[in-house]
Amino acid sequence: MSDAFDPKAPSIRVRGVLVGPQRAVDVLFRLDTGASRTSVRSHILRLAGYDPSAGQPLRFRSATGIGTGLAVPVRHLVALDQTRDSFLVIAHDPPPAVITDGLLGLDFFRGLVLTLDFARGRIDLGPSRPWWRPWR
Description:
Blueprint lengths: L1 E3 L8 E7 L4 E8 L7 E2 L1 H7 L7 E7 L2 E15 L2 E10 L10 E3 L1 H4 L2 E6 L4 E6 L9
Parallel strand pairs: 3-8, 4-7
Antiparallel strand pairs: 1-10, 2-3, 2-6, 4-8, 5-6, 6-7, 9-10
């Protein structure tokens, strides 16, 4: 999967979909390779039909430090043409000045190859491929 991003923007934004028991909700994530977990604003989780207050307390790391939130299992999270089923997200509400709905963290990218091409403004996410080719 390949998508465009603005290499001059202060952050990389990624569109996604959070699928819940009541509905699917469009989500605007900030890609954060400094975040150990993916987080979503509480009101977005409620829109999809989840109860964030029923989540388990969990600490996580972001680029700005250690945070706490409530871990909520979601049915499906889709971003960059990848779907994570039964995926654990953190219900976390950043300051109002943050204009995205959540952070797309390292846990979403595990097992995949993430390439950020700032020269071309392209983001690629896909399956791992061997870096070498066997001799024929």
